[in-house]
Amino acid sequence: MPSGESVLEEPDLALIHALQLVPRASWTQLSAVLGAGPDTLARRWEHLTAGGYAWNGFLIRHQGRVAPLYAWVEVDCAAGRSEETALALADDPCTLGVHEVTGDSDLVLLVLCPDLEALDAYLSLRVQRLPGVTRSRTQVVTGVHSARNLWQLDQLTPRQSRQLLGTTVPAQGGQGGQGGQGAPRRRPQRLSGLDEDLVLELAGDARRSAAELARICGASESTVRRRLDALMGGDLLIHHCVPAPRFSGRPVWALIRADVPSLAVVSTAAAMARLRQTRLVTSVTGGHNLAVGAWLRSVGELNDITTAMERAAPALRITGTALSLRTHKSGAQVLGPDGRRLHHVRPDLHAPLWQDRRV
After folding, report:
1. Does 163 share its domain with 145?
2. Are 256 and 318 in contact (CB under 8 A)?
């Protein structure tokens, strides 16, 4: 995979960094910090998103006290059927990662389901019935120790960051509507039906206006603004504002499997999460008890990170690695052969898990 000279310029990266900090800030607020006019920033963001070079969206972390179920699924395909199988699975609402990989399997999926029963239905009624699939193996995630935004940029100065995070933005129509990031975080006990509808609409574009969301969801603008303020102030959402991986400086995805003594899992996972390359650190069922997803600058960096993992946790034993030959899906975003975003798929877990819900 080519590392790809980035098409992103310094102003692009600064804008992405600003939206990582305040995803629904108005263009006027951003203009005061970034030193470009609101119209210029709006045009720049439109270029990035329309071209598939970056995106800004939300996913549901969990529903009230009940966390959804994650699983790593390895898929073997008949000769010549890997790509078509990956394309089909990328359009499923419950896949948050679809990679063609090196190693013992052809595909690795990260799957999100409401519970074990739904996972079984997805595997038996969808994955295992695809014509190109010959076998699948599943590891249920028993703990998520780190799920961070790997591409947290550092383009803004500390002063600019403080200025953004300390500014309160009134909830109003247009491309704005998030309350001040410095306010105390409030955690809703449970997502309402309207909340879930709002998050589904924000999965592909976190900056959709309150007026547009109200029209789509059949609610008043004032109600939508109130619910958005509550959602933004809680910790039920996962925010992704990132450049497309191929243009991020870390274009190579890797899955690293490891085994550690049970008593050392928590401390080892914490050490893994501190490594710059790691994005998702999970405890899993099966022959090894840790699975780590990472984004690397190059294929050669795989050796660097496995060495760093073993140094950070001497009790750890690497049991297997896989590199992505092509990433078809990252989060809710479906990526094309050139690494750019094609479209997003609504991660609606209440719909049939194999229903095509691309947007």
Report:
1. no
2. yes
Asked whether 178 and 30 are in contact (CB, 8 A), the reply is no
pLDDT tens column, 194-246: 998 999 999 999 999 999 999 999 999 999 999 998 888 877 788 889 899 98
Let me know: does 157 contact 33? Beta carbons within 8 Å.
no
Give the single-character DSSP code of 358: B
Q: List, for residues 297-317, the tens digit of each pLDDT value.
A: 999 999 999 999 999 998 999
Rg (CA), the chain: 20
Nearest-5° Cα angle at 131, 128 to 133: 50
Structure tokens given for 156: 């803004």
Q: Which of these, 300, 301, 296, 261, lies nearest to 279 by C-alpha position?
A: 296
Question: What pTM, to 2 d.p., does this model score?
Answer: 0.87
For CA atoms 292, 323, 243, 201, the dihedral sign is negative
Per the structure, how many domains does the chain have? 2
* CATH classification of the domain holding 283: 3.30.70.3460
Task: State the pLDDT confidence band at 3, using cuts at 50, 70 and 90.
Answer: very low
